[in-house]
Amino acid sequence: MKIVGFYIAFVLIWLLTLLPLRILYLFSNLFYFIIYYIIGYRKKVVIDNLQHAFPEKSKSEVITLSKLFFRHFCDILVESAKTIHMSPQEIERRVTYPNPEILHKYFDRGQSVVLVSGHYGNWEWMSNTPRILKHKALAIYKPLQNEQFNKLILKIRKRYAPQIELIVMNEVVRVIIQQLKNKQVILTWFLTDQTPPRNYPFRTEFLHREVPFYTGFEKIAKKFRHAVVYSQMTKIKRGHYKVEFIPLFDDPAATQEYEITKKVVSTLENTIKQQPEYWLWSHRRWKHSKEKP
Questions:
Q1: Tally of structural domains, the chain
Q2: Which tens digits make up the pLDDT trace of 217-232?
Q3: pTM for the whole thing?
């Protein structure tokens, strides 16, 4: 029955997303009204997260931010669904990269790169990044519970960047070693703001609350001496984004333990503070948190 349900949903989405984005944004407006005012999907979670992250803001300011977030969230839904029919060229028109030379500088000297970012802007469209590169790219992902939807998402991501290899975390080291044996420089992309288990050994402050934070990207960068670059996405307007690359560490092996992770966390915080509504506030990121005293 699950498979039947998947194919029914897929056909409906496939037909709906034949419409141009300007029409799909009308559906986004409708989804926003239903999700925010009728269903109230994770509304309390979003408001609670915003209140803790921005204690200086009034209740009315937090409510305004929550509405802006849900509007953006619904835009992401239709934008991500639309990728079923979008050409790579249209994605390139909608997501621009003003400074790709930052990455090429490392590749040209034979150094691989760990690219870090968060669930900010439209991270699905950011998976188009490898198209601007000359080299192999690895993207670390967490499989969805629904196997059929998981296969669909992977197929869509792969379509826009044929040279990208999508792998789960426990396969990263093996794949990187294989690529290095072949004398290839590679880019390994991590979404760093996933939620680790409660007993994860490293914790740090993130938007006023102490939480466990994955450090796998730091371990990879140090082990293989890969440069660390932050990918900052900015929403220009509806359906248009800009991705800028910010170098963080050229020689990770020379850093102190957790220095890289703390720097990535603080950089992501700065991105979120600039335009808070574009981060994934419906995510239960602080479910294992300790309150800041």
A1: 2
A2: 999 999 999 999 999 9
A3: 0.91
